[in-house]
């Protein structure tokens, strides 16, 4: 019997074989109380010390009890739990399994180090807050399958031992025992396979897919994550976006009982960068950045002068509610952690400007800054892309609490085809994305745009997609402009270009990060909190101790050996 089945029982009914964990034991004089807990309920057990039951149970023992379902005396009722009006006067108790002393308590709001929680994840998941996260994740999967069935989109799986799918990260490699010296890659996404389905003639596809990206540990990324991967044949971006809106709306309603409004707004990449300093703008915040470079064209402030001489920019935000010195210092610390040299700021009060740099301002600067009105101006000077990152952070830090909008979805579109990442030219999305104009692309690839669209929820990139290239010549051209050699193209993508060469329909698709979606809706601090068995930030699994070295015999069998890199 599970505790939920007590529902509807009458006072005085017999209860047989109720199983659960000992949530806690309380000794009150002649009476002993146990809270018995199972997956979704708890109930109080009571027995007196005189009874023949030998308690001897501790927290998390798994026990079986029988007894009488009884109404509690008025005044002893606990209205916080479902069975708070009842208790079971037990007449038998069996220990099914004992528990060792726990590494942490099975309760909410513990401050145990995350690595300990992950080492004992099976205990961590017994805690209500974690259990609820995983149940929400499960409901999300269910609602996805329901809407996909309704839209008649085919669920099809794709292999995970593959050649390689570039999505901008490094591959995880799997050595092949049967072909010594050769490696499979784990998919960074099912991208090329879902396109192959379209070439095979399927009208559409979806999959709740595991993706693997060996990225440098970045905040809130996981080497292994789950996405809702979708593709449509005979499609264009409008059709895909429309369907994604239907799907997202359905998931919010069915899994979380949240009503959202569609269609979503959209913004171009260029506007997003100049107004918000990011391609993932949090549009719950209405305040925008200002480019105040021109105010400082004849400045005496040396670092600003140097910045402008080096074609840099000065970007600012103005807040009417000025901040305390302590909060200014906190902002300064937080952007320094991101790499900034520090926070620039001016306070304006009745046209009087104060702040550490105020004494260096000339009259023109003072009067132009004064036009912003009373309050605080925070600013950054430097390389545009660099400072945009700090300004985005400042905007979120300063204004987020002022917003009462809970959910804000935005499409971001018109991305540049290529971007420079760590000094290397990379497609902003992936190299299977169609250029907006193939002619422009051919002439000037570095300045051309892509038919790529992102979906941003509250400043978090929830998903990405694009129109795909369906012409083998254009596909080859894109790979060439990316900088791949003829040989590289042939070895890595020859099979794919070949597949595109047999009458490929126009197709387009999208992928939504499920971990991020659930974490954002549940307001969890990290995606690790909604993934049952996540890795730490350094990619370790403290529970199983993976990844780990392999033994000598396996090395031989896989034709591998350790080399000393020192
Ligand atoms: N494969 C892409 C990604 O994982 C999504 C897509 O273009 O459909 O981001």
Secondary structure: number of strands: 21
Strand content: 15-25%
Low-confidence stretches: none
Number of helices: 15
Mean pLDDT across all amino acids: 94
Rg: 30 Å
What are the bound molecules?
Answer: aspartic acid
Query: What can be said about the biggest beta sheet?
Result: 7 strands, mixed
The gross shape turns out to be globular
- In order across it, which strands form the biggest sheet? 8-9-21-20-19-16-10
Helix content: 25-40%
How would you describe this structure to a colleague?
This protein has 566 residues and is of the alpha+beta class. 28% of the residues lie in helices and 25% in strands. The protein contains 15 helices and 21 strands. The strands form five sheets. The protein has a seven-stranded mixed beta sheet with strand order 8-9-21-20-19-16-10, with helices on both faces. A hairpin with a 7-residue loop joins strand 6 and strand 7. Helix 3 crosses helix 5 (237-256), helix 3 (128-150) crosses helix 14 and helix 12 (472-482) packs antiparallel against helix 13 (486-499). The radius of gyration is 30 Å and the shape is globular. The chain starts with 13 loop residues before the first strand and ends in a 9-residue tail after the last helix. The relative contact order is 0.11. The model has no long low-confidence stretch (mean pLDDT 94). Bound molecules: aspartic acid (ASP). Residues 167, 189, 191, 464-466, 509-511 line the site of aspartic acid.
């Amino acid at each position: 019997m599970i505790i939920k089945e007590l529902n509807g029982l009458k006072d005085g009914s017999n209860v047989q074989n109720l199983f659960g964990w000992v949530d806690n034991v309380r000794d009150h004089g002649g009476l002993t109380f146990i809270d018995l807990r199972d997956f979704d309920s708890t109930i109080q057990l009571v027995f007196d010390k005189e009874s023949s039951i030998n308690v001897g149970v501790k927290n998390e023992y798994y026990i079986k009890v029988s007894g009488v379902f009884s109404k509690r005396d008025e005044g002893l009722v606990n209205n916080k739990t479902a069975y708070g009006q009842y208790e079971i006067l037990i007449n038998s108790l069996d220990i099914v399994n004992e528990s060792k002393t726990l590494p942490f308590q099975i309760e909410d709001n513990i401050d145990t180090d995350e690595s300990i929680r992950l080492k004992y994840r099976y205990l961590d998941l017994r805690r209500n807050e974690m259990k609820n996260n995983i149940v929400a994740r499960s409901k999300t999967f269910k609602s996805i399958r329901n809407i996909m069935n309704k839209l008649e989109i085919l669920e099809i799986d794709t292999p995970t031992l593959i050649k390689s799918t570039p999505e901008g990260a490094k591959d995880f490699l799997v050595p092949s025992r049967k072909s010594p010296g050769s490696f499979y890659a784990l998919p960074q996404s099912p991208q090329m396979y879902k396109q192959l389905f379209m070439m095979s003639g399927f009208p559409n596809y979806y999959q709740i897919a595991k993706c693997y990206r060996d990225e440098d540990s970045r905040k809130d990324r996981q080497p292994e994550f789950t996405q809702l991967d979708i593709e449509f044949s005979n499609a264009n971006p409008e059709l895909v976006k429309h369907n994604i809106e239907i799907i997202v709306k359905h998931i919010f309603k069915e899994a979380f009982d949240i009503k959202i409004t569609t269609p979503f707004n959209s913004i171009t990449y260029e506007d997003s960068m100049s107004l918000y300093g990011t391609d993932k703008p949090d549009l719950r915040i209405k305040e925008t950045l200002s480019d105040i470079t021109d105010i400082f064209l004849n400045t005496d402030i040396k670092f600003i002068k140097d910045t402008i001489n080096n074609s840099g920019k000065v970007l600012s935000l103005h807040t009417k509610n000025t901040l305390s010195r302590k909060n200014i210092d906190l902002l300064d610390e937080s952007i320094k952690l991101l790499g900034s040299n520090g926070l620039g700021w001016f306070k304006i009060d009745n046209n009087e400007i104060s702040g550490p740099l105020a004494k260096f301002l000339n009259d023109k600067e003072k009067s132009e800054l004064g036009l912003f009105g009373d309050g605080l101006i925070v600013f950054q000077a430097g390389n545009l892309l660099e400072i945009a990152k700090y300004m985005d952070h400042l905007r979120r830090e300063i204004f987020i609490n002022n917003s009462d909008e809970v959910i804000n979805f935005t499409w971001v579109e018109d991305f540049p085809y290529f971007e420079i990442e760590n000094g290397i030219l990379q497609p902003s999305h992936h190299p299977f994305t169609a250029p907006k104009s193939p002619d422009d692309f051919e002439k000037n690839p570095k300045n051309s745009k892509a038919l790529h669209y992102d979906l941003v929820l509250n400043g978090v990139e929830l998903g990405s997609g694009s129109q795909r290239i369906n012409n083998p010549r254009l596909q080859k051209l894109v790979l060439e402009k990316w900088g791949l050699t003829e040989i590289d193209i042939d070895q890595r993508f020859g099979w794919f270009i070949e597949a595109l060469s047999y009458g490929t329909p126009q197709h387009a698709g999208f992928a939504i990060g499920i971990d991020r979606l659930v974490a954002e809706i549940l307001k969890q601090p990290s995606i690790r909190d909604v993934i049952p068995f996540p890795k730490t930030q350094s990619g370790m699994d403290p529970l199983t101790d993976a990844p780990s070295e392999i033994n000598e015999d396996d090395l031989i069998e896989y034709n591998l050996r350790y080399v000393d890199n020192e």
